Amino acid sequence: MTENDGWRLFRGDRTARQVDFPEAPPWRQFANGTPGTRVRHRPYLIGRTEADVVSAALHLRRPLLVTGHPGTGKSSLAHAVAHELSLGPVLQWPVNSRSVLKDALYGYDAIGRLRETHLRQERGAPEPDIGTFVRLGPLGTALVPRERPRVLLVDELDKGDVDLPNDLLTVFEEGEFEIPELSRLPEAQSEVPVLTHDPEGGRVTVTRGVVRCREFPVVVITSNGERDFPPAFLRRCVRLDLPDPDEERLRDIVAAHLGEGALEGVDDLLHAFLNRRAPGELATDQLLNAVFLRKGGVNLNAEGLLDAVLHRLGGSV
């Protein structure tokens, strides 16, 4: 093994060994292995102008539609708002081509309820509570009436069906939705405790099958600009376009995540990153990954580090 080669935990030499794993990057640390406790309170840098747009959306109780290139911190903005305003864990709805509005509102396990009913009938036990088989989705949980709003992240809405933005309009405008399986119950069962999407667990009581918010949730919708949204949807959103950070902001981001000392000896990485970012090859989180590896002893030059190690890694921090 050559000098400064100790960063190579895996060498591909088919020799079994015990290695001491180095500390993970701050953005890849998890809290005690407990579900739903990923460390999210990371530094988030945003300009005054962009922060004012967020405040406008909060005052107007309107969804915030955030656009920008990958790695500009669109998704992380929701977590920054939730942390700074003490609004609890973020409720997340990652949208894909199969996503439909009902999945975000609630789910009803009719087959599970039927199976449990048959089992109880065989034992002569009472029928199961229907609320056990109803779980509010992330949007449904965000609309539960409470004194302080929750933060809902609708991630990458542009990946969904073309009709999905319009489907969301009614819910956003009315601040409520109906669960037919509960609204059809007799009056004696007008109040039903149901499960939620809340990472902290617990149940909420739904009255007459209707969930109606008291305070409209803080809705952050992200888009990579893969397609345009309907004008009616855009009119009901406050729009924020996050710019690509310049060199000064990149230095601030590195220092905020890895400390001021991380800026020493990384000018070549910064310049190589800026030169290659224009074609859209790299995102800000990849620069952070490169700096972290450089500080951990990876003995590759800037171009080699960005190309061979990080070229196709994505995500946002």
UniProtKB/TrEMBL annotation:
InterPro entries: AAA+_ATPase (IPR003593), ATPase_dyneun-rel_AAA (IPR011704), P-loop_NTPase (IPR027417). Residues 60-246 form the AAA+ ATPase domain. It comes from the Bacteria. This is AAA family ATPase. It comes from Streptomyces noboritoensis.
